[in-house]
Amino acid sequence: MIKHITQDDIKAMEQRERARLINSLSGFKSANLIGTQNASGITNLAIVSSVFHLGADPALIGMIIRPDTVPRDTLSNIKATGVYTINHVNSLIWQQAHQTSARYDESESEFEKVALTEQFEKGIDAPFVGESQAKFALELREIKPLEINGTVLVIGEITHIIVPDIALCKDGYIDIEALDTVAISGLDSYHTTERLGRLSYAKPNTKPQLLNIEGDVC
Amino acid sequence: MIKHITQDDIKAMEQRERARLINSLSGFKSANLIGTQNASGITNLAIVSSVFHLGADPALIGMIIRPDTVPRDTLSNIKATGVYTINHVNSLIWQQAHQTSARYDESESEFEKVALTEQFEKGIDAPFVGESQAKFALELREIKPLEINGTVLVIGEITHIIVPDIALCKDGYIDIEALDTVAISGLDSYHTTERLGRLSYAKPNTKPQLLNIEGDVC
Q1: ipTM exceeding 0.90?
Q2: Where does the signal sequence lie (chains A, B) (predicted)?
């Protein structure tokens, strides 16, 4: 049976039920840990499912933060230092990653609380996650308030990428599935992936071809 | 071996290689088809990997569109009609979905070109994809230019949701994995998923519990 849910139905729903429903609709989401520190050097780690690609040249990443929920320390740290890291969540650390969303006091570091390893790199004033396989650092470019619902769009430029060379394909693609990166659906569901295939650039009068992920390309 | 890629390396890369690399970094992305029509009723369908959750109350979805690439008809249609649909790509239609990114003439409908079925619902002036299992209609709320790289953020409010009741869990979560919704990595890689688990709401002094996805919840 196909269910039709109207705008009135959505408005009438209990708040948590509506949050679970609407959060399921956008499709699979990225699972990333945002690493920051405040001016006193207290580190912070927060799982965020709203990281998205914004552009490759310059290399820009966007994320949505709701100032009144847990990543609030993340936002104030980014404002204070202008620097943050984004670390892929993988299938070995997904439960610890989820636990960073608990409301720890700002004097406590989530790294310690959930037992993940701080990794510092020279010249970057924000901690990476040692257990994460694909990670990168960013400099803050812009904080754009979205008046429509009180969230903010944080835009950063990528300054440093750390990735195992085995997953870096010759054509630039990173095989994030081989690195065990997970995806999120809804508010709380975590998923590993299985590749259907890579497809060639689409042109009007030809069918897309499957790219060979091994050998030639990777 | 761990590879470090610096900002200078990124800037020096060949354009398509950089696009593949940077597009891989945000993690898994949603795979959605945007259904629109112009004022003359010519329909359009475009795959977009930049759809993201913006808020549940009001129910808002964001997506990034680069006006100079293929979804340009999508943007002008949304501006003209104020209405669009978002349709999950699943493992039966992923190759057809990818093919919508070819540069078809604006007088041609991608529905016909890639052999997907237009589905119209009363009162909604945009086509759904018949073959998509989870889909919803939106009214345009805001088009926000992002000056930093010339992209635009399109914000819509969800007005109508169509989903099989078998995938709609009691607590509001939609089991999009059961609907075969796929994820994208990079520019051109498509993935099915396998659930690791759902986790309970995180609290500071307890470990998150695995939620039972069948029976009680679903």
Answers
A1: yes
A2: none
Q: Is-contact B96 B182, C-beta < 8 A? A: no
A143 vs B: CB within 8 A: no
In a domain, residue A216? The reply is no
CA A90 vs. chain centroid, Å, equals 11
How far does CA A182 lie from the centroid of its chain?
10
Look at residue B213 and tell me whether its pLDDT is greater than 70: no
For chain B, the three-class secondary structure string (H helix, E strand, C coil) is CEEEEEHHHHHHCCHHHHHHHHHHHCCCEECEEEEEECCCCCEEEEEECCEEEEEECCEEEEEEECCCCCCHHHHHHHHHHCEEEEEECECCCHHHHHHCCCCCCCCCCHHHHHCCCEECCCCCCCCEECCCCCEEEEEEEEEEEECCCCEEEEEEEEEEEEEEHHHECCCCCECCCCCCECEEECCCEEEEEEEEEEECCCCCCCCCCEECCCCCCC
Domain that holds residue B55: 29-211
pLDDT digits over B29-79, tens only? Answer: 999 999 999 999 999 999 999 999 999 999 999 999 988 776 679 999 999
Alpha-carbon gap: B185 to the closest alpha carbon of chain A (Å) = 7
Q: How far apart are CA B87 and CA B96, in angstroms?
A: 13
The residue among A9, A13, A17, A52 with the most chain B CBs within 10 A of its CB, best to mutate, is A52
A37-73: pLDDT as tens digits:
999 999 999 999 999 999 999 999 999 999 877 667 9
For the cut 70, the answer to whether the pLDDT of residue B20 exceeds it is yes
**Max Cα separation, chain B?**
60
For testing contact with chain B, the best of A15, A25, A195 (most B CBs within 10 A): A25
pLDDT-flagged residues of chain A (< 50) = none
Nearest to B183 among A50, A153, A193 (CB): A193
Q: Are the Cβ atoms of A30 and B28 closer than 8 angstroms?
A: yes
Structural domain count, chain A: 1
In a domain, B149, yes or no: yes
Asked if residue A63 is part of any domain, the answer here is yes
* B126, part of any domain: yes
CATH number at residue B163: 2.30.110.10
> Are B70 and A60 in contact, with CB atoms under 8 Å apart?
no
